[in-house]
Specification:
The complex is a heterodimer. By secondary structure, chain A is α+β, with helices and mostly antiparallel strands. Helix content of chain A is about 35%, strand content about 20%. Chain A starts with a strand and ends with a helix. Chain B starts with a helix and ends with a helix. The chains are: A alpha+beta, B mainly alpha. Chains A and B meet through strand 2, helix 1, strand 3, helix 2 and helix 3 of A and helix 1, helix 3, helix 5, helix 6 and helix 8 of B. Chain A: Pfam families: AP-5_subunit_s1 (PF15001). Chain A: This is AP-5 complex subunit sigma-1.
């Protein structure tokens, strides 16, 4: 099952200014820690969750930067993609790594990430998940989000269109459940979504 | 794209003040209270979501606002986007004390699902359980035109993973029954299109046909996730969801709860070989619900395996087939662990599957769960699965080391399956050169995994070869890059570093002189005989500036630390000795990546001392090699760290108390060698061959010479003379051109301290060659033997003496 999904920025390797920003994040259920003796207020829990997400986003960013450098593409021209070309998602860089228990999530987790131009899409999964399915789901989500939120059109601001993101997630990743959707099912769900959110 | 406008929007959302937020909340309330929730309300909620989610600190929303959000969420007539946003805002604010959702009357299953998502985010086990109970009640209702259940099944799965004890046994059985229905008896006819005409749709609309397979053929058996059609019925949706949650559900509701340890299973399986061999499957309708679910799950997996053999018409379906294969094998693994009677049927099926997949490079990731299955169950069913492991460890890494996802999954497989390897651990250990290819190519994500894996991979037989390969890891990265350049087809997307061109290296690859070395570096199995790869280091020099090589080089020191902490657990004297010499030999034979040598030397120097501490006699045993090392100028490369360690070790351990075989001649020989070295390095005349000597080397040499003199006391006059010369030298103006003031001061101080000690030879011996008891606390607490006291006394005596003498 998926524990969290996030969309965040990716800065070019060796970029000095700017910060890694989490643009959207969603938790599916909460981690339990009945053994923690310290009194925990709800504010502290929320702060912890946000920090966990940010820590994960930063790690993904550095993994992506290292991968880009290793492939010999350090100074990628991120603005070169025009809005008409379909984004080659099949070749988008992706990777996975493990997070040990306590660092930053309580349980050991696996992180799967996909980078599309300067945006990172990341799934935080339980430790032993079907990674082929997770990767496929992530590519699907990225494709849907790019299409329906028109992320590549400059000026289109998806920060204020969270309802669409939520709409996509409720259908394609309900409560963090990875679904085995064949192409026809995907099309069916997409039609449903487009009906409720006309472009 | 993340533009400056978006950045400023985020900042605005973060910086909005409490007053402004209050005003905004009342506006939101106003809009939500209207009859007709139009685009203004949507826009306001979008902004509210951004405000709440943009900051990690809490945002206090007015109670009326929060209440209104909850009411809107539960109201039946609210459009979906608004409901989603209300749920999203409430979830963002979780965990929160001010929730008071009353959801008893909510009928719409979609809304129920949204409410559940808010409640599950609170992190309260009681709430999780009550969500589970409520959802279960709806799931158990058997109305044919009832609410759409597909919004609720994922909730059930989530609840089961968060709070496994939510359901009672009879509730689990009831749900098992329904899961069986959905998995096995979903409709095989396609669904009807939802026509927007509704009331006026023509009754003679074309009847939908049967569902099809992914290759277009008509479906031959029951509906699964790999069955397609134009439209889908409700139970077909539930089929998809039921399979998606099947594995987790089986694990949570199986015997012993989540993840029964493999060890227990094996002993059970071994005892039940008779039942394993019986191929008859019991008539399934007689089985209790859990067993029935397992039986149907088994049939489902078998069908998926058959369906994944078909040639899918669409690429997305082809990818799904592979994911289904993996899941099917994983579910079969769980089933066999829970009920060994499935084993017989599964083994034959999986062996056939493995044979089929071996020849298909696109399905390579599916081989891992199959291998894991054989590791878990192969022994119990008396099956020799060596062929599976051989293929896995020899072919896979060599062909697919460059795929980051496979690399990660492969190493995960190794780590997670460690307790299952048993007799087959040897295959894993001997394949370490192949495993290191994954590490060399993908070092950032895999370094921590290998640090955990190394202790198991190492044994006395492979330690030496492993250390050589670890030190050559960046060279392996370069060699793999070159290998890809030479072997990849021109039309494929390049996997190597495209920013670097290396025509010369490719030429040399064809040179037979280097081919043998390349083959050795790129070998798949431990060869037992290390080769000296220095010629390759030179050849691959142009690739040393490659980013991937640099990343690997940064990972090596961490891996070396892990190596040594593992090796020192089991190394005996002979191995420690061998490794120590290896360190010295390799310290000046490393692949020249910028900064690599310095970092590695830091680790090697510390580990040399650790090895000596483990096996102190090695200094005496390997006196000859150590003398050679000290005599050669190679030890002074870099910061001289390794040389400092060697000199220190000689000082510490070259004495009778550590090894009875230490003779006076040996001490004298070392003394002469070290004295000569010290003389050389302190020449103030600049020498072309000798780099500037760091002061640590000088002080270490002086200290060691003094220690040796304290053991063979006729050397004392020589040392004293030398030390006073050193002191004068350090204080002279000529020295200030070579050493900084601080360094010169340190040398001077040390020389003085040592000279003082030597004035009282028996004290010197006591201080510089303490007996083994020095590590006992008693040694330091006892006023007669305490070291600091002795030193202080000596200093005072010597100073007084110096004060009595003129000049």
């Amino acid at each position: 099952m998926v524990h969290a999904f996030l969309i965040h920025t990716l800065r070019a390797p060796k970029a000095e200014e700017g910060l890694c920003r989490v643009l959207y994040s969603c938790f599916f259920g909460a981690e339990n820690s009945p053994d923690d003796p310290r009194p925990r207020g709800p504010e502290r829990d929320r702060l912890l969750r946000k920090e966990q997400i940010l820590a994960t986003a930063r790690q993904v960013e550095s993994m992506w930067q290292l991968q880009q450098q290793a492939c010999g593409r350090p100074g990628m021209d991120l603005q070169s993609q025009s809005s008409d070309e379909p984004v080659p998602l099949q070749e988008a860089p992706c990777g996975a790594f493990r997070l040990a228990a306590g660092d930053p999530f309580q349980e050991p987790r696996t992180v799967v990430w996909l980078a599309v131009l300067s945006l990172g899409f990341t799934l935080v999964l339980d430790a032993h998940e079907n990674l082929l399915l997770a990767e496929g789901t992530l590519r699907l989500l990225a494709r849907l989000l790019l299409d329906h939120l028109r992320l590549l059109v400059p000026g289109a601001n998806f920060l204020l269109r969270a309802d669409r993101i939520e709409g996509i997630l409720t259908r394609f990743l309900p409560h963090g459940q990875l679904l085995f959707l064949n192409d026809q099912f995907v099309q069916g769900l997409e039609k449903e979504f487009s009906a409720a959110w006309p472009r | 794209m993340f533009t400056a406008a978006a950045e400023s929007l985020l900042r605005q959302a973060r910086e909005i003040q409490a007053e402004e937020l209050k005003k905004f909340c009342s506006r939101v309330c106003q809009l939500l209270q209207k009859e007709d929730l139009g685009p203004d309300a949507l826009d306001a909620l979008r902004r509210l979501f951004l405000i709440v989610s943009a900051t990690k600190y809490n945002r206090r929303l007015e109670k009326t606002c929060v209440d209104l959000l909850q009411t809107t969420l539960c109201s039946p007539s609210c459009p979906e986007p608004l409901q989603l946003l209300c749920a999203a805002v409430l979830r963002e604010m979780s965990p929160s004390d001010s929730l008071s959702l009353s959801w008893e009357h909510v009928q719409n299953t979609r809304q129920l699902g949204l409410l559940a998502s808010v409640l599950l985010a609170q992190g309260d086990q009681k709430l999780v359980r009550s969500v589970g109970q409520r959802v279960l009640k709806v799931l158990e209702s058997r109305q044919p035109e009832g609410p759409s259940l597909r919004h609720l099944l994922p909730v059930m799965s989530k609840v089961a993973s968060l709070a496994p004890d939510t359901l009672h046994e009879d509730q689990t059985s009831a749900l098992n029954k329904r899961l069986v229905d959905w998995l096995r008896y979903a409709s095989v006819q396609q669904g009807v299109a939802h026509s927007s005409g509704g009331f006026f749709s023509t009754p003679r609309a074309r009847q939908p046909g049967p569902v099809t397979e992914v290759d277009g053929a008509v479906a031959t058996d029951f509906f699964t996730v790999l069955s397609t059609g134009q439209h889908f019925t409700e139970d077909q949706w539930l089929n998809v969801q039921a399979f998606s949650m099947l594995r987790a559900w089986l694990l949570h509701s199986g015997p012993g709860g989540p993840r029964t340890p493999a060890a227990d299973d094996r002993s059970e399986l071994e005892g039940s070989t008779l039942s394993v061999l019986s191929a008859a499957s019991t008539a399934s309708h007689l089985l209790p619900p859990q067993e029935r679910l397992r039986e149907k799950a088994f049939e489902y997996c078998q069908r998926l395996i058959e369906q994944s053999n078909r040639r899918a018409l669409r690429k997305a379906d082809s990818d799904l087939q592979k994911a289904c294969l993996v899941e099917a094998v994983l579910v079969l693994d769980v089933l066999c662990r829970q009920d060994p009677s499935f084993l017989y049927r599964t083994l034959s099926c999986l062996r056939a599957l493995h044979a089929r997949l071996c020849g298909d490079p696109a399905c390579v990731r599916a081989l891992l769960p199959i291998a894991r299955f054989f590791l878990t169950h192969g022994e119990a069913a008396a099956v020799g699965a060596e062929a599976v492991y051989q293929h896995l460890f020899t072919r896979l890494p060599s062909d697919h080391f460059h795929s980051p996802m496979l690399a990660f999954e492969f190493i995960q497989f190794c780590r997670d399956s460690l307790p299952l390897f048993g007799r087959n651990l040897g295959i894993l250990r001997m394949s370490f050169p192949n495993l290191f290819k994954f590490l060399a190519w993908n070092s950032p994500p895999l370094t921590s995994e290998f640090v955990a894996l190394l202790p198991v991979l190492l044994d006395a037989g492979t330690a030496v070869e492993t250390l050589h390969l670890l030190l050559d890891l960046p060279c392996l990265t370069a060699a793999l890059d070159l290998h890809l350049r030479s072997s990849q087809a021109a039309s494929e997307r390049p996997l190597w570093d495209v920013s670097l061109r290396t025509p010369g290296c490719l030429e040399a690859l064809r040179d037979p002189q280097f081919q043998g070395l390349f083959q050795h570096l790129l070998r798949a199995k431990a060869s037992g005989t290390p080769e000296r790869l220095a010629p390759l280091h030179q050849l691959l020099q142009p690739l040393a500036s490659c980013a991937r090589v640099a990343q690997c080089a940064e990972a090596v020191p961490t891996l070396l630390q892990a190596f040594f902490s593992a090796v020192t657990q089991f190394a005996d004297g002979a191995l420690a000795s061998q490794l120590a010499l290896l360190l010295l030999e390799r310290s000046d034979s490393l692949y020249q990546v910028p900064g690599y040598e310095a970092r590695v030397h830091r680790v090697l120097s510390a580990q040399f001392l650790a090895l000596c501490k483990l096996h102190p006699s090695l200094v005496v045993e390997r006196a000859k090699e150590l003398l050679e090392f000290v005599g050669s100028a190679g030890g002074l490369r870099g910061s001289g760290r390794v040389l400092t360690s060697v000199v220190w070790a000689i000082g510490e351990y070259l004495s009778v108390s550590w090894d009875r075989r230490c003779t006076v001649e040996q001490i004298n020989k070392f003394f002469e060698a070290l004295e000569a070295l010290l003389f050389e390095v302190t020449q103030l005349r600049p020498s072309v061959t000798l780099p500037k000597c760091p002061p640590q080397v000088i002080t270490a040499l002086m200290t060691t010479l003094t220690k040796l003199a304290s053991r063979s006391q006729d050397l004392i006059p020589r040392v004293s003379l030398f030390l006073s010369k050193m002191r004068t030298l350090a204080q002279s103006t000529a020295a200030s051109s070579v050493h900084s003031e601080e360094d010169a001061g340190a040398i001077c101080t040390r020389a003085t301290e040592l000279l003082n000690l030597l004035k009282m030879p028996s004290v010197a011996q006591f201080v510089l060659t303490p007996s083994g008891e020095v590590s006992e606390p008693r040694y330091h607490r006892d006023t007669n033997t305490a070291l600091p006291l002795a030193l202080r006394t000596v200093s005072r005596l010597v100073e007084r003496e110096a004060g009595l003498l003129p000049g």
